[in-house]
User: Which sequence fits this backbone?
């Protein structure tokens, strides 16, 4: 049996205790070493994440700068460079009731005209009120005055009765409202032209420019004609929101 001994220098531990202490110390050193390595690895991961965050922030800043530049460039297209007055419509389009309207300079068939309006981000014009009718009819009137050399007959709008004769629908899907109709006298008459091989009749609607503005019944400018006829056309799209 081991016996504790004392010397003048103090307590002397048995060999077994010293051995256990060494094992414990070595294990502690190993744990500390592993913890140190793990901390180093975590620090490296943290540094990597911080660098990634910086890189993403720089990329986002660059993208915001590009987007801002593109947006400003686009917005400048809505502004007059001389007066610095800005519109909510692109050049060549006229604003009315939070919408933008365009009158083509080239005649097309009704279907082709609609496709061109769709390609420009809109559709053929829809008349929802007397104010709409006045605005669009005036556009055709002003165009004729400004281009007297052209043979301007009328301009397509987004109204047709192709599916069923007399059942008129707008390109928006809405049915023609009886309180918002602006037919010319004796129209619609669905007259069939002699040259029509299929005798389809007149299923598409145009606005015929009036001779004068503001006279009695000047708003009554609608005429149904053959959809295959070549006419100018009126497009519409939503006005831009400038924020």
Assistant:
């Amino acid at each position: 049996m081991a016996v504790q001994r004392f010397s003048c220098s103090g307590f002397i531990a048995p060999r077994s205790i010293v051995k256990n202490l060494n094992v414990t110390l070595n294990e502690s050193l190993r744990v500390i070493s592993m913890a140190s390595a793990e901390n180093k690895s975590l620090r490296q991961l943290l540094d990597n994440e911080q660098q990634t965050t910086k890189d993403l922030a720089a990329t986002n800043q660059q993208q915001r700068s590009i987007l801002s530049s593109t947006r400003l460039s686009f917005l400048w297209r809505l502004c007059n460079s001389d007066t610095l007055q800005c519109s909510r419509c692109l050049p060549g389009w006229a604003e009315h009731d939070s919408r933008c309207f365009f009158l083509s300079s080239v005649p097309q068939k009704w279907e082709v005209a609609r496709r061109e309006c769709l390609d420009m981000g809109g559709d053929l014009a829809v008349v929802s009120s007397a104010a709409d009718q006045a605005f669009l009819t005036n556009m055709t009137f002003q165009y004729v005055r400004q281009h007297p050399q052209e043979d301007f007959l009328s301009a397509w709008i987004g109204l047709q009765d192709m599916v069923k004769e007399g059942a008129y629908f707008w390109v928006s899907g809405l049915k023609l409202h009886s309180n918002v109709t602006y037919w010319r006298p004796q129209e619609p008459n669905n007259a069939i032209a002699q040259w029509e091989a299929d005798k389809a009749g007149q299923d598409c609607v145009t606005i015929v420019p009036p001779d004068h503005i503001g006279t009695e019944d000047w708003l009554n400018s609608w005429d149904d004609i053959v959809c295959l006829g070549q006419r100018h056309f009126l497009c519409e799209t939503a006005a831009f929101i400038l924020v």
Remarks:
- The chain has three helices and ten strands.
- Residues 12-76 form one domain.
- Residues 1-8 have pLDDT under 50 and may be disordered.
